[in-house]
Write a structure and sequence with these properties.
The chain is mainly alpha-helical and 160 residues long. It has seven helices and no strands.
């Protein structure tokens, strides 16, 4: 991967993640939908160093002083990794003439990481099955990851 492709992939991941965050702010402002708690994600990441992947309730795990910063950094790190994956899978030609479909496919596929690793890891069960409103959470996840896909595509268009 050339440096040009790498920096574009990083920018695409950051742009998509930022759009997803703006979407969360919109949902919170207009519909009073709670924003993601990246501090608890940071706590989960912190406990990975001890080999603890799955928790009954991440809120009951020992807190980490910088968990919010770690959670936000991890959130953007994952977005960057997804940007790199898209650039590698779609290829350099896609970076010069982006289309929505590859970004959309990746955006939807990435929901799986949240449903089958992060949610059960934090104690919410597979695809939020232990939450009182799992279908609502799943629908919001699919919409948010579609917004992420729009961010991948839109950022690629902006920097081509």
């Amino acid at each position: 991967m050339t440096f040009d492709i790498f920096w574009r992939a990083v920018a695409i991941g950051i742009g998509a993640t930022a759009l997803m965050d703006l979407w969360a702010i919109f949902l919170n402002t207009v519909f009073a939908q709670p924003r993601p708690n990246w501090g608890l994600v940071g706590r989960w990441v912190w406990h990975l160093r001890d080999g603890k992947v799955f928790h009954d309730d991440i809120g009951e795990a020992a807190p980490y002083a910088h968990e919010s910063a770690l959670g936000w950094a991890f959130h953007y790190f994952v977005g960057i990794v997804y940007g790199i994956i898209l650039a590698v899978l779609a290829g350099a030609a896609w970076l010069t003439a982006p289309t929505f479909l590859p970004a959309f496919i990746l955006g939807i596929v990435t929901v799986g990481a949240g449903w089958f690793l992060l949610a059960p890891g934090m104690g919410a069960g597979w695809a939020a099955s232990k939450r009182p409103n799992p279908m609502q959470i799943r629908a919001l996840n699919l919409v948010s990851h579609t917004v992420f896909a729009l961010g991948l595509f839109g950022t690629a268009l902006l920097i081509r």
